[in-house]
Amino acid sequence: MTFLVVVLSFVMVFLSAILLYKKKHQRYYDLLKQFPSYRAYPIIGSIKPSHCVLNNLLKTFEELFKSHDRIIYWFGPKPILLLKNFDDISTIANQNSDRNLFGFAYQWLGNGILTHRHAEWKKSRKLLTPAFTSGMLEKYCHEFNKKFSTFVDKLKPFAVSGEEINIQEYVADSKMETTLESIMGISMEMSEKEVKGLGDAVYQSLYDILKRVMSPWLHPHIIYSIYLKLSGKTKIIKELNRLPTKIVKENLKNTNARKYQSENVDSSKCIVNLMIKARQDSSFTDTRLKDELLEMFGAGTDTTSQNVSFTLLMLAIHQDIQVCNSYRFHNTKNDCYIILQQKVYEEITQLVGEHEEFTSDHLFNHLKYLEQCIRETLRMFNPAASILRQTQKEHVLKDNTIVPADLSIGIVFHLAHRDTALYENPHKWNPENFSTQAIASRPKGSDLNFSIGPRSCIGTKYAILSNKSQIAQIIHNYHLSTSIKELKPEYLKMDISIRSKVGFPIRFTHRKKTRPENI
Ligand code: HEM
Ligand SMILES: *[C@@H]1O[C@H](CO)[C@@H](O)[C@H](O)[C@H]1NC(C)=O
Ligand SMILES: *[C@@H]1O[C@H](CO)[C@@H](O)[C@H](O)[C@H]1NC(C)=O
Ligand SMILES: CC(=O)N[C@H]1CO[C@H](CO)[C@@H](O)[C@@H]1O
């Protein structure tokens, strides 16, 4: 008798579990039906061969969004909701703190701030946040200034010879070193080759993760592991982990926190020292700390280096620009032209004169026009062209459409930033789009620059300051020009980031009176 009761209740519980599960999923699929879906087939889903060509991603997104602002794309059986509308993006990003890379990043990047989900991510974010307080940022400014003045010297030979160079190749390396030294507080001998090896491996890793996302046959973990072995990628993964592993060994095991000689800033908060502490409290294992380091490189370096190139190229292209506002500087007779690069230069020289150094105050509180130029570049060429999120609960969009829980969301910043509803002339670079009035004329927070909400970029201020420092020093010393007339939308391509098909060819000319004559 009791046996029967037990069996019966067991069956009841089992049946109601199935019913509940079905009901829950029924709602999920019902809610999905509210959104238009891209054509999908069994097994492969929506993926077409042309979608798998990685540097064609920009075209793919344009095709997907051709007649809709929201669209469901099927990665095989798995749906992903793609968004490009500012209202939708801000609703999701503001209320959500989860990223889901389908578990595709693990082999390359391990588990850290970028890839972790839920509670583990919170721990990472808490560990790293103190490295980005204003006090720390001020300290970094000193390091940027030192570093980038060396960089300016590196450009001298090209100013003398007058040849046009692809600036990106020079920018990338100097950024990597700055990140290693300032933000991480890493003190050890690293050869240029080691740093470059890490930079290349980071790029390869991000590229391969995206490639896997776009190649359904690489989705199963077993197949991917075999693919990694056969294609020799395991070597790159080793290279990727070499420097972070060495840093854990040589920097973190040394229990004396690293001191900064110069400033009276609390040096306990540079990343290495935060990690030494976390290691001593046994709150993080060595492997976890290595992964956190690696993911900070992944998030911080490729993104940073390219953008500087875009701003420099824009300043080189836009020697003058038509703006019919009340500008004090260099207006021509009809008040409709400003010499843009000259305006940036004058802002700099008015602040620091011809030869003085930049201070952290200059970078924090001044050079506002340069900042407008940087923000406009971020709008048009944001290196984080698209990102992935995952809903944890249901979200109600502005028009009352409900987004189901447990759904992957793809956010396409690149298209959101070129929305004609927000920017009259979205393919035209113009820093006036970020004047105080222009910002006020758009909905609050519609500038998505570094994303919004709890999971937005941890390095926002750092990136802006480092950029300002680098560009200010270059413009302070050189006049820029280029053979490119305009960076048209068709000159761009997108893979892990937005790229220029025509490179970043720039010619540097000395500005200082001390420049050698007759060369
Ligand atoms: C121009 C430069 C940069 C841009 C445009 C940028 C943009 C972004 C974006 C859009 C995200 C994703 C946010 C989201 O999911 O909503 C992100 C995340 C992140 N970024 Fe940046 N970033 C830049 C530079 C940096 C730098 C210099 C660092 C480090 C020093 C950094 C560290 C991170 C980290 C750690 C995350 C993950 C945050 C988390 O998941 O909690 N980024 N960034
Ligand atoms: C942004 O710049 C473009 C290009 O000059 C201009 O046409 C447009 O009016 C600007 N938009 C805003 C909101 O200022
Ligand atoms: C990014 O956008 C927000 C508004 O969405 C703005 O408050 C912030 O200043 C912007 N940051 C940069 C660096 O452009
Ligand atoms: C802008 C861009 O295309 N990204 C580049 C960043 O720099 C590295 C190193 O030079 C290049 O490999 C990337 O292609």
What Rg do the Cα atoms give? 25 Å
Low-confidence stretches: 324-337, 514-519
> Count of DSSP E strands?
13
Based on helices, strands and strand pairing, what is the structural class? alpha+beta
Mean pLDDT: 83
CATH fold-level assignment: Cytochrome p450
Main beta sheet: strand number and arrangement? 4 strands, mixed
- Please give the order of strands in the largest beta sheet: 1-2-9-6
Task: Please work out how many helical segments DSSP would assign.
Answer: 19
Q: Based on CA inertia axes, which overall geometry fits?
A: globular
Which CATH class applies here? Mainly Alpha
Percent of residues in helices: 40-55%
Name the CATH architecture: Orthogonal Bundle
The CATH superfamily is identified as: Cytochrome P450
Alpha carbon gap, first and last residue? 105 Å
Strand coverage percent: 5-15%
- List ligands, each type once: protoporphyrin IX containing FE, 2-acetamido-2-deoxy-beta-D-glucopyranose
Q: How many separate structural domains? A: 1
Subcellular location: Endoplasmic reticulum membrane; Microsome membrane
Binding site for heme: 457
Main location: endoplasmic reticulum
Pfam families: p450
Q: What this model shows, in words?
A:
The chain has 519 residues and is α+β, with helices and mostly antiparallel strands. It has one domain: Orthogonal Bundle (Cytochrome p450), CATH 1.10.630.10. Helices cover 50% and strands 10% of the residues. The chain contains 19 helices and 13 strands. The protein has helices at 2-32, 57-64, 86-95, 106-109, 118-128, 134-154, 156-161, 168-183, 192-213, 221-230, 233-252, 271-280, 286-317, 340-352, 360-365, 368-381, 413-416, 436-441, 460-477; strands spanning 70-75, 78-83, 164-166, 320-322, 337-339, 386-390, 395-396, 402-403, 408-412, 478-481, 492-494, 498-500, 505-510. It has a four-stranded mixed beta sheet. It has a three-stranded antiparallel beta sheet with strand order 3-13-10. A two-stranded antiparallel sheet has the order 4-5. A hairpin with a 2-residue loop joins strand 1 and strand 2 (78-83). Helix 9 crosses helix 13 (286-317) and helix 11 crosses helix 13. The chain starts with a helix and ends in a 9-residue tail after the last strand.
